[in-house]
């Protein structure tokens, strides 16, 4: 179901199809693997070649020959299929944060992995409300008409100074620029969002202050950490699920996700009736 052949082509796993991470869109399939006793599993989408230099060095997320899926993570009984599906975005969050990711899941990962003060910015108050509810220390509603300098000042005044790390999760040029400008000297900026292929960044500002700009692609050895966070209760991803659709309503589900209808954050498409495979109801 993916349009993006660069990383995540369509594939079948027995009778079930997995949606891959696609342009930061927010729709997730329930994962299930038949056979082997019918274990309930989350699937890390994508199988690297295991032969190239990237694979040999353990950086399999950079493999150019990624295909199909067989990375299965068995879910404990108390972890629902919906939570299993959310391990995919959460893994991106874990990868981004530990790499010193995408929006709210990065917030969850940052909290669980020890960030003491977290500020979330957005252009939409409703998303900030959810961020606050999920435990963000501060939220800051941005206004497109404000100057970049003013926004940096507001970030620094709202927080107790410049942040050690900033993560751009949206891919807009203004957002990546803000991440660099607002981060303290010697800090780290992770750019997760992928928007235009070329953007203008304040590179000299970053270089002269030794701000380390890092990229993130997919996830690498992050799924088990993501599952641990969910299974242990350190991270609650349930609040992110705003909509549920039957498989026959797939087109509607995609539209809801694409346009953020009804406050959509994560949209679930159910292959089987809801909770059919959850020992503990979602
Ligand atoms: Zn490879």
Automatic annotation (TrEMBL):
Tree of life domain: Eukaryota
Cofactor: Zn(2+)
Name of the protein described by the UniProt record: Sorbitol dehydrogenase
Keywords: Metal-binding, NAD, Oxidoreductase, Zinc
Residues annotated as domain Alcohol dehydrogenase-like C-terminal: 102-231
Molecular functions (GO terms): L-iditol 2-dehydrogenase (NAD+) activity; metal ion binding
Coiled coil: none
Any one GO biological process: sorbitol catabolic process
Provenance organism: Drosophila persimilis (Fruit fly)
Matching Pfam families: ADH_zinc_N
SUPFAM superfamilies in the cross-refs: GroES-like, NAD(P)-binding Rossmann-fold domains
Similarity field: Belongs to the zinc-containing alcohol dehydrogenase family.
């Amino acid at each position: 179901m993916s349009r993006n052949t660069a990383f995540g082509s369509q594939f079948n796993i027995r009778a079930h199809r997995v949606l891959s991470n696609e342009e930061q869109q927010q729709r997730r399939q329930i994962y299930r693997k038949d056979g082997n006793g019918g274990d309930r599993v989350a699937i890390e989408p994508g199988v690297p070649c295991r032969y190239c230099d990237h694979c040999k060095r353990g950086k399999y997320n950079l493999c150019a020959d990624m295909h199909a899926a067989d990375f299965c993570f068995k879910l404990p009984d108390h972890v629902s299929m919906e939570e299993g599906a959310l391990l995919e975005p959460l893994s991106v969050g874990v990868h981004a944060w530990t790499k010193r990711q995408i929006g709210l899941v990065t917030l969850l990962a940052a909290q669980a992995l020890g960030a003491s003060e977290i500020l979330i910015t957005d252009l939409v108050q409703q998303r900030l409300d959810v961020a606050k509810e999920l435990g963000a220390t501060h939220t800051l509603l941005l206004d497109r008409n404000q100057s970049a300098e003013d926004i940096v000042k507001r970030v620094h005044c709202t927080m107790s100074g410049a942040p050690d790390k900033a993560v751009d999760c949206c891919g807009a040029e203004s957002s990546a620029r803000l991440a660099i400008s607002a981060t303290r000297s010697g800090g780290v900026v992770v750019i997760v969002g992928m928007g235009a292929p070329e953007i203008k960044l304040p590179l000299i500002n970053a270089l002269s202050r030794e701000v380390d700009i890092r990229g993130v692609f997919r996830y690498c050895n992050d799924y088990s950490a993501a599952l641990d966070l969910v299974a242990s209760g350190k991270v609650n991803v349930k609040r992110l699920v705003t909509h549920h659709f039957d498989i026959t309503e797939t087109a509607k589900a995609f539209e809801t996700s694409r346009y953020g209808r009804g406050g959509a954050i994560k949209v679930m498409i159910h292959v089987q009736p809801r909770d059919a495979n959850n020992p503990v109801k979602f």
